[in-house]
């Protein structure tokens, strides 16, 4: 399904320009944009969230001579709406206010500074209200090496982190055993037959160039000798998983 075409950001108000920047950085997510006591959604995000949540879609001002579709949810009820969207298969980028109106006024800014502070996805949940109590929300990363696959899986709510090297023939059984909420893998692996039943959980991501360094940096160590031996495929999967954790959790990187 093709992605709806957004208008350009040209002529946007300062606040709407921030929304356009957040949407450009996270085109596949619904952008929840903090406006005072509400998180608001604009353009097609408002329509899609409105359909999924039963929200009324109205308009907030104009952009390039046309009304801007808008829907909103109260900040105090955010978790309830997030849970419903995640269960429906959406990803959500939370764009929050990073200063008070007084601070913005003091620096003579045209609007409050806002930034995406977290990307909420099925495999990166930490709040009890969002989690399914019946099973972990495993985030699984897969990578391919010389005649073998590497797997790394993380549960951010508990900090569990495991890795494994296995032959391609065992990928299907690994998936059945873990039942991951989200599966990260490089583009070259998307067509693998074992992954066909899991299409709706696949997330295409490029593996980092130096996964061993990424793993060492995450744990604040000079080298990985104290962690045991990793195959190249395992390291690639670890790097893929940790990169995604950093990208989605922002400043709230968990302890694993």
UniProtKB/TrEMBL annotation:
Residue span, DNA mismatch repair protein MutS connector domain: 139-253
| GO biological process per UniProt | mismatch repair
Looking up InterPro entries in the UniProt record yields: DNA_mismatch_repair_MutS-lik_N (IPR007695), DNA_mismatch_repair_MutS_N (IPR016151), DNA_mmatch_repair_MutS_con_dom (IPR007860), MutS_con_dom_sf (IPR036678)
Q: Which GO terms describe its molecular function?
A: ATP binding; mismatched DNA binding
Domain DNA mismatch repair protein MutS-like N-terminal per the UniProt entry, residue ranges = 13-128
Q: What is this protein called?
A: MutS domain I protein
Q: What is the lineage of its organism?
A: Bacteria, Pseudomonadati, Pseudomonadota, Alphaproteobacteria, Acetobacterales
Encoding gene (name) = mutS2
């Amino acid at each position: 399904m093709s992605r709806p075409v957004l208008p350009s950001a040209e002529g946007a108000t300062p606040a709407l320009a921030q929304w356009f920047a957040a949407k450009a950085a996270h085109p596949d997510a619904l952008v929840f944009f903090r406006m005072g006591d509400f998180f608001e959604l604009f353009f097609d995000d408002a329509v899609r969230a409105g359909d999924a949540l039963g929200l009324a879609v109205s308009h907030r001002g104009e952009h390039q001579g046309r009304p801007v579709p808008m829907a909103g949810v109260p900040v105090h009820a955010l978790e309830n709406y997030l849970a419903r969207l995640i269960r429906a298969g959406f990803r959500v980028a939370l764009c929050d206010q990073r200063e008070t109106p007084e601070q913005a006024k003091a620096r003579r800014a045209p609007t409050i500074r806002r930034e995406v502070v977290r990307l909420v996805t099925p495999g990166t949940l930490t709040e009890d209200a969002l989690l399914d109590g019946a099973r972990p929300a495993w985030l699984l990363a897969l990578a391919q090496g010389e005649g073998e696959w590497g797997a790394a899986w993380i549960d951010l709510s508990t900090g569990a982190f495991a890795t494994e090297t296995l032959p391609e023939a065992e990928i299907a059984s690994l998936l059945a055993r873990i039942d991951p909420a989200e599966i990260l893998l490089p583009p070259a692996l998307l067509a693998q037959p074992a992954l066909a039943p899991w299409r709706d959980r696949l997330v295409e991501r490029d593996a980092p160039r130096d996964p061993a360094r990424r793993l060492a940096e995450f744990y604040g160590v000079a080298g990985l000798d104290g962690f045991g031996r990793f195959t190249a495929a395992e390291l690639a999967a670890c790097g893929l998983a940790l990169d995604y954790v950093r990208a989605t959790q922002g400043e709230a990187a968990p302890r694993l």
